[in-house]
Amino acid sequence: MSVIPHLINGELVTENGRAVDVFNPSTGQAIHKLPLATRETIQHAIDAAKAAFPAWRNTPPAKRAQVMFRFKQLLEQNEARISQLISEEHGKTLEDAAGELKRGIENVEFACAAPEILKGEYSRNVGPNIDAWSDFQPLGVVAGITPFNFPAMVPLWMYPLAIVCGNCFILKPSERDPSSTLLIAQLLIEAGLPKGVLSVVHGDKTAVDALIEAPEVKALSFVGSTPIAEYIYAEGTKRGKRVQALGGAKNHAVLMPDADLDNAVSALMGAAYGSCGERCMAISVAVCVGDQVADALVAKLVPQIKALKIGAGTSCGLDMGPLVTGQARDKVSGYVDDGVAAGATLVVDGRGLSIPGNEEGFFLGGCLFDNVTPEMRIYKEEIFGPVLCVVRVNSLEEAMKLINDHEYGNGTCIFTRDGEAARLFCDEIEVGMVGVNVPLPVPVAYHSFGGWKRSLFGDLHAYGPDGVRFYTRRKAITQRWPQRASHEASQFAFPSL
Ligand code: NAD
Fold first, then answer.
1. Same domain, yes or no: 255 and 402
2. Containing structural domain, residue 292
3. Which one, 265, 330, 416, 419, has the greatest CB density within 10 A?
4. Whether 467 and 411 share a structural domain
5. What pLDDT does residue 316 have?
6. How many helices (H) and strands (E) does the chain have?
């Protein structure tokens, strides 16, 4: 079994000590050992970042962007290799892995615009012979902690932008599927990034706590589950750090009586069961307005769920792979047991699925519940698996109240042909990302990504314009060059025009 190294100061570093296994979820076999960084290892990465910062902050943004242009090319050239690594350790299909990489590359493309996005703002003659401008300056050493479900895309939400803004970055990826994340970081070094500007350290709570506690780390970006997001936000902000912490989700799709049902069903199939439901924007609740829509939806979903092509993610032409770990599979299965016990109607049961040749893999078939009610655990909690719950309501207002009352507010969508209903939904729904006939409204890289309520702790969303704000601090400079011949008396009143 090979050991996955850290990447610190441009070098691959191995470490003896605590380690965990990384599994191939399709076979259920452990394939790599992953060292868990000690506090000393984290300090090593911080020291390297700190040493690299002065030169990197003074590197012209256009030069920093050139590194990103080369990085983009390398990512595209290595798409097949990266997708294979994602699929081997996460379990998602190769096509899905390539899709997440492409969405990650969009963020590199946005970062290529560094000279434009860091131009600042300028006002001439704000007073006599006085000019003023706002500068966007880097923070210094910043860190990111990322989840297992997008090992390529989510880190790419963070460090390309942080780095072109002039910061040095320490990434602590998920310990479940770190190989693609590491390879991508190596490609950035190959693209010409100076040593120490990006380090990747593997680890668990010990590593994360060391990053939170280090005074040199000025900001933390986190994406993962809500309890950890809340912890990192509380502990980081307590220490005066800037923190954006994106958490869990329960995303509802509203189906109006006038919806184009066939298209809505196709959209829901991908959004609920793609990536085995392990997406923070996955649709896990279908809210049907009226029994007629609900009956028709369930009737159309059932044969499609039963026909899902499920197998090892690395095989071609599949719809769904396994869940990431045996523990994740058992947890999701447990939710299905719980839904049955609570009285929901289990219309399709994916429990006990066995894939010939991959009997030890962490598979679970698609599950569908009807007649789910708001007090059930399967409705309230994030399941993070291939389970779709149908909730029946009588009006759009009732559907919106349901969504607005939920603790999470990451994504949502409405399927309708009624512009008035869609507009009301977009205006009044308390969710950060909204789709109209679009099931996974993940913003493109030149907008920003973030939920509301307990799906995000912090003020600024991830990537795009909010990302630039997060990774820079403003300096407002007011400059006066008095004319030589003039002499002005002291002014004791507050200066004004
Ligand atoms: P997780 O919270 O278990 O882990 C995320 C990161 O936190 C990992 O790097 C992990 O090592 C670290 N971590 C875990 N326990 C920790 C602890 N006690 N102290 C400090 N650090 C700790 O999440 P996950 O299972 O990897 O990912 C799935 C979750 O992420 C889901 O809840 C999903 O909704 C969420 N997610 C959210 C978004 C979003 O944009 N809102 C995007 C992707 C995933």
1. yes
2. 251-436
3. 416
4. no
5. 83
6. 16, 23
Using CB distances shorter than 6 Å, the residues near ligand 1 are 145-150, 154, 172, 174-175, 204-205, 208, 223-225, 228, 246-249, 280, 382, 384, 410, 451, 455
- Which of 92, 182, 202, 228 is the pocket-test mutation for ligand 1 (most atoms within 8 Å of CB)? 228
Predicted pLDDT at 31: 97
Of 42, 177, 208, which is best to mutate to test ligand 1, by the most ligand atoms within 8 angstroms of its C-beta?
208
Q: Are the C-beta atoms of residues 257 and 287 closer than 8 Å to each other?
A: no
Please state the atom number of ligand 1 nearest to the C-alpha of residue 176: 26
Quote the CA–CA distance of 242 and 212 in Å, as a whole number.
Answer: 11
Give SS3 for 242.
strand
Element (H, E) at 56: helix 39-57
Please tell me the total number of residues recorded for the chain in this structure. 497
| pLDDT score recorded for residue 303 | 98
Tally of structural domains, the chain: 2
Any domain includes 444? no
- Protein residue whose Cα sits closest to atom 16 of ligand 1: 205
CATH number of the domain within which 81 lies: 3.40.605.10
Query: What token pair was written down for 212?
Result: 């939170």
Q: Are residues 239 and 268 in the same domain?
A: no
* Confidence at residue 432, expressed as pLDDT on a 0 to 100 scale: 98
Identify whether residues 148 and 238 lie together within a single domain. Answer: yes
Instruction: List residues with catalytic annotation.
Output: 280
Segment 219-242, tens digit of pLDDT:
999 999 999 999 999 999 999 999
Q: Looking at residue 483, what is its pLDDT?
A: 79
| CA 354–ligand 1 middle distance (angstroms) | 28
> Which residues, in sequence order, are CB contacts of 233 under 8 Å at separation 6+?
222, 243, 245, 457, 458
pLDDT in tens, 111-162: 999 999 999 899 999 998 899 999 999 999 999 999 999 999 999 999 999 9
Helix-strand-coil split of the chain, %, nearest 5: 40, 25, 35
Domain-located, residue 355 = yes
Q: What is the CA(220)–ligand 1 centre distance, in A?
A: 14
Secondary structure (3-state) at 71: helix
- Residues in the chain with pLDDT < 50? none
Bridge partners of 426, per DSSP, are: none
What is d(CA 77, CA 151) in angstroms, rounded to the nearest whole number? 18
Cβ neighbors of 446 (< 8 A, separation 6 or more) are 110, 464, 465
At 490 the pLDDT is 84
| Cα–Cα distance for residue pair 108/393, rounded to 1 Å | 43
pTM higher than 0.70, yes or no? Answer: yes
Q: Are residues 373 and 427 in the same domain?
A: yes
Distance 232 CA to ligand 1 centre (A): 11
Alpha carbon nearest to ligand 1 atom 21, residue: 205
Listed residues 404, 436, 468: the one ending a domain: 436
Give distance in angstroms: CA of 51 to centre of ligand 1.
Answer: 29
